[in-house]
Every structure is written in C-alpha cells, then in structure tokens.
Specification:
Layout: H1 2-6, H2 9-22, H3 26-29, H4 46-57, H5 60-73, H6 78-100, H7 105-130, H8 134-149, H9 153-157, H10 165-175, E1 186-188, H11 194-200, H12 218-226, H13 231-240, E2 243-248, H14 251-256, E3 270-273, E4 281-284, H15 292-299, E5 314-320, E6 327-332, E7 336-341, E8 348-356, E9 361-369, E10 376-380, E11 385-387, E12 390-392, E13 395-398, E14 403-406, H16 410-415, E15 418-422, E16 439-441
Parallel strand pairs: 1-2, 7-15, 14-16
Antiparallel strand pairs: 2-6, 3-4, 5-6, 7-10, 8-9, 8-12, 8-13, 11-12, 13-14
Helix pairs in contact: 5-7, 6-7, 7-8
C-alpha cells in the first residue's frame, strides 16, 4: 500500500514535507511552538511546561497506562486481543508524537481517553461485583472521572485569549483610511499578526500564521525588509510587493521570528539562550543598530547621534499601546526632495520637522553637507499638516547661520517632487535687540519679473 501511494508524485512530495515538519527542520518549523516538544524545550521554565502538560491531560495518562495493562491481560479471544493490541499501539505512537511535537497533543488525547475509561470501568466493576453495591460503583466511577480531569479545569475553563485591544484600535484606524493613490495597500508586519490585520485592518499582508501568505518567498521577503540596512535595498522590494504600510512592535520577537530567513550577510541582530530553569532569554545585539526597522522603531526614522542617516521614505502614521513597547504603523512615501541653495560651502545643512501624535511628540531631523556651490539635498517624509494621525509643522532648514521655515506639500512627499529652498545669511542682530526669526519660504518658486521691469526675480 505504501509503495502504491508513493508512486504518486503529489503524495510523495506531501509525505516529504510531512517528514520535514515532523523533524522540525528549516527556518520555519524550528521556530514554531506547534512543532516543538511538549516539555524540555528550554523556551520556558521546565516547571511551567510540566504544569501546562498537567493542565492539558490531567491524570488521564497514568490511568491510560493502567488501562492498557488491564486490556492486554484481559482473557478473551485472539480477535479481541488483536484489537486491544492495536488500540494500545495507537495510543503509544500518538503519545510519543505528542511528547515530541506539540501539534499531536489533540490527536493523542483520543486514544488516551479510551484507555483511561477502561481503567475506570474496571475499578467500578470490582466494586459493583465484589461488594454488590451498584450505586457505590457508580459514585466511585464519577469520582474517578472528576479526579482525573480536575487538574485540567483551570486550563480549559480559562477565557480564550483576546486580540490585543491596542492592536485592534490601530488596525481599526487603518481600515478607515482611504485607498492609497499608488495602490500599495499591502502590510509588512510580524507574521503572527497577519490574520488580525486581514480581519480588523481590512488589508492584505505579506505573511501570516499560515506562513507564505503571498507566495513561497513571503517569509524571506519579510526578513529582507526587516533586516535591510539601506533604503536603496528595501525600496524595490516594498514596491514589487505593493507594500504601503510597515507595522513594527517589540524588536526582539520581531527580528527573532524571521531570523532564519534573513538574507545572506545580514547582521546578527538577536541572541537567544535556552535554559530549562529560567526559560528563553533573548537580547538585541549591536548588529541590530543599523537596521532600518530598528531606527524606525526607536528613532522614528530620524538621523541618529551615531551618524546613521535619516530614513526619508517612511513616515509614522499612527501608534498605539504602552509607551515602552508601542505598535507603530509607518507609511511608505517617495519623500520630498528639498533642494537647498545659498548655504555655506562645506557646512552641515539640517532640516527638522516637529511631529505630534495623540500620545506624544517628537522631531524628525535629517542633514547633509553643502557642496562647493552651497547646495545640499535633503529628503523629508513628512508634509506640513496631516500625515495620517500625525500632525507635522513647518520644516526648519538651517546651515548653522542662516535658517528658513519651509512648508512641504503632500504631493511632494508622495511623489518625490523637488522643493526649492533658498538660504541667505542672516543679518547680524543690533545691540540689545533679538535676531529676526527665520523666514518662511513658499514651497514653489515665484514667477520671474517681467522683462524690462528692472526688478530682480524673487
């Protein structure tokens, strides 16, 4: 029969995938709790795993062992002994699989319950026949069942886990957003949030608990997005996958869950230590610092003091959750190109944008060095005004001496248009008087004066 089944290519390939899953090989299965052992994983304290196993099975396994012995020793014909042996073998195989892989716990429960019932009924029969007290036998049977399942009552009577209310709040906001002009409605997010994003956020996802939600390369592509260190690497992948939103959360599980799919040469960002007493300990490594995901989550994409450049193609649209580990939703943009002229040659030209959200405020900053002609180019992902739930003010552009406030149009941010900015030296302040405030520039050049008017262009 096995030979006939394996003659089919589809069945043969399916069996091969089943063996890979059973052995928990590969980057996917090796990190999924469903394919981990029931106890002794090192991901959680051993005591907690044993208590969890007790909560799943109660005292049914030892009763099932007793029932197996009684069933095999019961005098009966060859046919019944064969059936008994088949039932015991079925229970042994599935119990061993349940210990090896958590996935088989529900399957093992079925034969174990049958064997436990044999033991309980055998005890009740002895009371009924030996003492001729059927009511006592019935009461003893009920008490035995109650004692066997009592340890499982807290586990099975607990209310089902609810989706994080903060996540639901953020995704409900996402579901209410108008369609993007570029049609990029996809969301790159931790794969375990994929189904919640589809249900509450009404948006397609790159990966979900089913794994390759958008094709076989879904998880490698998600890992490439999260482990990217340069915008030039990430942007083509986001565009090809039509990703318009990136949802980030706690960095340790975020990076750890796709670490097995990280592209070749990606820095080691997370270190995990397994311990039977203390459980899993995970920590961020210095390799996580240059990742775009890290800089977006911790610095909101602004330039860092360590010299890392700003991220000009991603803007924060909404966030929810506690202040220590919030959920942050970013939107992809082309970024407005600020073409600065009139800066001091060789000076560092900076642009700073104040951004406020319902729960906090921050400043997005970027900088570049002016060339010999006093020109510099800066990319800003925030338009003046509304950016989703974020409100951005005027961009303050300065070379250390001259400064000007610039209004950045939404169209320039979405389409990557150029916004000309003219810096001019600030006049020295008169003694006892404050220096004049920075000028506010129009985002678009004014038309030149008519020929012959003698007035220079503005």
């Amino acid at each position: 029969l096995a030979g006939l089944l394996l003659a089919s290519r589809g069945l043969r390939e399916g069996a091969a995938r089943g063996v890979v899953a059973l052995r928990a090989e590969g980057a996917w299965y090796s990190d999924i709790s469903e394919f981990a052992p029931l106890v002794g994983t090192g991901h959680a304290p051993l005591r907690g795993e044993l208590l969890h196993a007790l909560g799943l099975f109660g005292l049914v396994p030892p009763l099932a062992l007793l029932g197996a012995v009684l069933l095999l020793r019961r005098p009966s014909g060859p046919a019944r002994r064969g059936l008994a042996a088949a039932g015991v073998l079925w229970a042994l195989v599935l119990s061993a699989l349940a210990l090896a892989r958590y996935r088989f716990v529900p399957y093992a429960a079925i034969p174990l319950v049958g064997l436990a019932a044999v033991a309980l009924h055998a005890g009740a029969d002895r009371l009924r026949v030996g003492r001729r007290r059927p009511r006592l036998a019935l009461a003893a049977l009920g008490l035995g069942i109650l004692l066997a399942v009592a340890p499982t009552l807290p586990e099975w009577s607990a209310p089902p886990a609810r989706t994080d209310p903060d996540l639901v709040e953020l995704l409900a906001w996402l579901a209410g957003q108008p369609p993007r002009p570029d049609g990029r409605e996809g969301v790159a997010a931790p794969w375990e949030l994929g189904h919640a994003i589809q249900y509450y956020g009404r948006h397609p996802v790159l990966a979900s608990p089913f794994g390759p939600e958008a094709g076989a390369a879904s998880l490698p592509d998600l890992a490439a997005i999260l482990y990217a260190t340069r915008e030039e690497e990430e942007a083509p992948l986001l565009a090809s996958r039509r990703i318009g939103y990136v949802l980030l959360g706690d960095l340790v599980p975020l990076l750890l869950d796709v670490s097995g799919f990280a592209p070749p040469g990606a820095p080691q960002a997370v270190r995990v230590t397994l311990d039977l007493e203390e459980g899993e300990q995970a920590e961020l490594l210095p390799g996580a610092v240059p990742l775009l995901a890290t800089r977006l989550y911790l610095q909101d994409g602004a330039a860092t003091r360590g010299g890392l450049p700003a991220i000009g193609t991603m803007r924060l649209l909404q966030e929810a959750g506690p202040g220590e580990e919030p959920l942050k939703l970013f939107g992809t943009v082309e970024g407005a190109a600020l073409a600065v002229a009139g800066a001091r040659p060789g000076a560092t030209v900076s642009a700073s944008v104040p951004v406020s959200l319902p729960r906090r405020a921050f400043a997005f900053s970027t900088h570049a060095v002016a060339d010999a002609g006093g020109r510099a180019w800066l990319r800003l992902p925030y338009a003046t005004g509304r950016n989703g739930a974020a409100l951005a003010g005027l961009a303050l552009v300065s070379d250390g001496e001259a400064a000007i406030s610039v209004a950045v149009p939404e169209a320039a941010v979405l389409r990557g248009l150029e916004v000309p900015v003219a810096l001019s030296p600030r006049p020295p302040a008169a003694p006892g008087r404050a220096a004049p405030p920075p000028r506010t520039a129009s985002p678009w050049p004014a038309p030149a004066a008519p020929p012959g008017s003698g007035a220079p262009p503005r």
